[in-house]
Amino acid sequence: MTKAAKTRSVAIVGAGPVGALMAVYLANRGWNVHVYETRPDMRLPENKAKIQNRSINLALSTRGLTALKGTGLALDELIMKSGLPMRGRMLHIGNEGHLVSQDYGVHGECINSVDRAKLNEDLITAAEELNNVKVTFNHALKRADLDKGTLTLENKETKEVVDAHADLIIGCDGAYSSVRNSLMRYVRLDFGQEYIPHGYCELSIPAKVGADGKPEFAMDPEHLHIWPRHKFMMIALPNPDKSFTVTLFMPFANFEMIHNEGDLLNFFEQYFADAIKLMGKDLLIKEYFKNPKGSLVMVRANPYHYKDRCIILGDAAHSMVPFYGQGMNCGFEDVRILDSLLSEFNVKSTKEGESDNSLALALEAYTDRRTKDLKAICELALYNYTEMRHGVTSPVYLMRKKVESWLHLLVPSRVIPLYTMVSFSNRPYSEAYARHHKQGFWLSVAGAAVGLGTAAGLLVAGWKQRRQLKDAAGLLKAAFLTAAQSAQKLVQ
């Protein structure tokens, strides 16, 4: 005799941005959703001071906005009310901080600086406003029996151990995921964790007082500011209160060389002199020695699911370094893609019996289709660190970017910059990465040709005006380097 259909239940472990958004999507499908979060409710005033925010400011771009819009609740508009568009990078070159602007796109495309805490709070509130969502704070997952669908959780305040049950368990609990640890007991899960030798420390640039007595931005707020120093760098993103959140990235070996206020000021005077004026010495000293020095970890796991019982999303499945600004965007895209697969495999909001082939097929398809994209973006994120701290000042890089932008304007369907494909489209990451490699050789050849032609022109013109020869020599050097790199790629 067939059992009566019952409404599906899901337990989402982790009420961060990805977990909260997943709750909204599944609630919209008619599922009964229960979210469990280890931390206290971050929206309560008494908890804001207790929760030490170690996160780097978030850059919201097309993939994230698409997922927010997909809820049908205008969450993209809600989040963007406090978002600040950044149309490019502003490089602070040399100790004097000479400013150089580099636009992200040729059509004025922007990424958006958003405050992680506010975004998270808004998404939790949006989820709780749905009748079929419940969020329980201060509960940490101890273990999960995936076959039975049971979770054992500990109340962090009372230490009471409680059990819960769900048809599906979703792990959105970050790089050190407890759900992933349970998943490892049920599947042959390939897992890798790697710390890069660089860490980070958050600082800030306060608003300045304008002529009218009101707060103003101390720098151009329409840019992501970068102080590239080859082996390390500092970045700054604007905030609605006219301040900037600043993040210093550098090897832990460098952090360990700074023991006191004198060491810190000497270091900043040597590498970031213009930033001292913007921050103020007292605030710099206070924040540097007060704020933690965070680690940067990469996590890779596969598969992401177990039958129709469990799946991991976001950092639990693919924690990446933050240098492409895609961590949150990728996590939000995880949610959107999983939701699309639930539709593709006709997974209903009710189920009959204990097992469900349609849900199992949807979760399996997620692992199959998402793996290569997540591998690609994790590699790109690490690659972009080298570009941000070093490549952006290279003549070869700048020449290639100029040629790429010009060709994109001329033949937009044939040549698309990698950053445009990653940040301003929903094109699969792996497809963007593959296309970038195909374009790379010919862009290098074109860049070399342009550089050689320009340098030759300067040499001819400079025959009578010798002072231009220095510029020509620089361009020739860049052009020959580009040509040599292109030839090397062709041989390989």
TrEMBL record:
Its cofactor is FAD. It is found in: Mitochondrion outer membrane. GO terms for biological process: 'de novo' NAD+ biosynthetic process from L-tryptophan; anthranilate metabolic process; kynurenine metabolic process; L-tryptophan catabolic process; quinolinate biosynthetic process. GO terms for molecular function: FAD binding; kynurenine 3-monooxygenase activity. Keywords: FAD, Flavoprotein, Membrane, Mitochondrion, Mitochondrion outer membrane, Monooxygenase, NADP, Oxidoreductase, Pyridine nucleotide biosynthesis, Transmembrane, Transmembrane helix. Pathway: Cofactor biosynthesis; NAD(+) biosynthesis; quinolinate from L-kynurenine: step 1/3. GO terms for cellular component: mitochondrial outer membrane. It is an enzyme of class 1 (oxidoreductase). Residues 9-345 form the FAD-binding domain. InterPro entries: FAD-bd, FAD/NAD-bd_sf, Kynurenine_monooxygenase. The chain crosses the membrane at residues 441-461. It catalyses: L-kynurenine + NADPH + O2 + H(+) = 3-hydroxy-L-kynurenine + NADP(+) + H2O. Its EC number is 1.14.13.9. Belongs to the aromatic-ring hydroxylase family. KMO subfamily. Catalyzes the hydroxylation of L-kynurenine (L-Kyn) to form 3-hydroxy-L-kynurenine (L-3OHKyn). Required for synthesis of quinolinic acid. This is Kynurenine 3-monooxygenase. It comes from Linnemannia elongata AG-77. The gene is BNA4.
